[in-house]
């Protein structure tokens, strides 16, 4: 770090930037220490083993459905739904390993991460790490969080950025209708029309050959097990339907916690404030926890990214108290309300863009 050293601050100079909340930061550090002492950073490996087993059972059930009942419409659709659940749940599980929240050593987390995202999903671990770590460092910060890169070419996101875009007289899309075309180019299209192809470009362009090898094992396994039942065309059809269903599942869950929240350029706020203003929760229930991979506790996940997910609900009351003390809103809402808020926020930001575009 010596190359970055400019000099030492004089004793009378403030050591904390004025844009950052020192009291909140100090109290969060105390909370973090207390959480570690409570053992909430330690994983229950049986939880993750059972989760992996339920994914493998769903995967086997999808194949057995076609093998036992044939390839007519109903078994085909049932198999596609089961495989979509496999892909979505494997997505949440690889997220756990990617955050190093299961094993005490990085080596085992990385190995299982490769297995789940590579062999069970056909995607590269390095691509996920590259994208997701940036998201956690600066969530909802324009040009720093890749998860909001759809602004401004597809959507106008957030009140501030939308007004800014309108004042600049920029119109890449009819943003005042984005709450409508979101249903066409958002949930249905992200995985089958973008991610599915971009990941191959990513691994080849960056020469990630280990990731590519893991990905190949996924496609070989799928071909060997489903081509004898469906043929090549039937498998391609099944694969597209699965990616389509998974994409809808993935987008609604991952965007419900962030899109309705504060989106802006990086304001150099303290880390805790940055995480809190960009995240909200969805109420706890057995279904919500399973359906979202416990990402309904998005606030706790962003504040404790290496915490095993089965402990989020235990730390939530402590986080809520910290927020209340500092006058920070702690949002938690029903699942369907969270989905609706995505559309509502897109409609609102689209209208703000239009008003600024026409009148400012």
Automatic annotation (TrEMBL):
One of its GO terms (molecular function) is oxidoreductase activity, acting on paired donors, with oxidation of a pair of donors resulting in the reduction of molecular oxygen to two molecules of water. Pfam families: FA_desaturase. One of its GO terms (biological process) is fatty acid biosynthetic process. It comes from the Eukaryota. The chain crosses the membrane at residues 46-67, 181-203, 223-245. Residues 74-332 form the Fatty acid desaturase domain. InterPro entries: FA_desaturase_dom (IPR005804), Fatty_acid_desaturase (IPR012171). One of its GO terms (cellular component) is membrane. Keywords: Fatty acid biosynthesis, Fatty acid metabolism, Lipid biosynthesis, Lipid metabolism, Membrane, Transmembrane, Transmembrane helix. CDD domains: Delta6-FADS-like. This is Fatty acid desaturase 1. It comes from Myotis davidii (David's myotis). The lineage of its organism: Eukaryota, Metazoa, Chordata, Craniata, Vertebrata.
């Amino acid at each position: 770090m010596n190359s970055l050293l400019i000099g030492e601050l004089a004793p009378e100079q403030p050591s904390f930037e004025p844009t950052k909340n020192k009291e909140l930061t100090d109290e969060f550090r105390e909370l973090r220490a207390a959480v570690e002492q409570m053992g909430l950073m330690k994983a229950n490996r049986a939880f993750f083993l059972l989760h992996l087993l339920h994914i493998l059972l769903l995967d086997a059930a999808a194949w057995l459905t076609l093998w036992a009942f044939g390839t007519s419409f109903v078994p085909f659709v049932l198999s596609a739904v089961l495989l979509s659940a496999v892909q979505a749940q494997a997505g949440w599980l690889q997220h756990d390993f990617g955050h190093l929240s299961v094993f005490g050593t990085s080596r085992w987390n990385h190995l299982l991460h490769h297995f789940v995202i590579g062999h069970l999903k056909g995607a590269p671990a390095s691509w996920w790490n590259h994208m997701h770590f940036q998201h956690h460092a600066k969530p909802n910060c324009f040009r720093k969080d890749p998860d909001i890169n759809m602004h401004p070419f597809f959507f106008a996101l957030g009140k501030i950025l939308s007004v800014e875009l309108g004042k600049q007289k920029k119109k890449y899309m009819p943003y005042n209708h984005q709450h409508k075309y979101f249903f066409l180019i958002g949930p249905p299209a992200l995985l089958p029309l973008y991610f599915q192809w971009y990941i191959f470009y990513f691994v080849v362009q960056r020469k990630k050959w280990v990731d590519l090898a893991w990905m190949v094992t996924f496609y070989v396994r799928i071909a060997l097990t489903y081509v004898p039942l469906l043929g090549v065309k039937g498998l391609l059809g099944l694969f597209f339907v699965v990616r389509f269903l998974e994409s809808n599942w993935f987008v609604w869950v991952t965007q419900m916690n962030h899109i309705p929240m504060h989106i802006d350029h990086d304001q150099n706020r303290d880390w805790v404030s940055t995480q809190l203003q960009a995240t909200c929760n969805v109420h706890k229930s057995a279904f919500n926890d399973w359906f979202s991979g416990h990402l309904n506790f998005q606030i706790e996940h962003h504040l404790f990214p290496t915490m095993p997910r089965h402990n989020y609900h235990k730390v939530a009351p402590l986080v809520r108290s910290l927020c209340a003390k500092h006058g920070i809103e702690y949002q938690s809402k029903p699942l369907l309300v969270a989905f609706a808020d995505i559309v509502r926020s897109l409609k609102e930001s689209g209208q703000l863009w239009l008003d600024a575009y026409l009148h400012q």
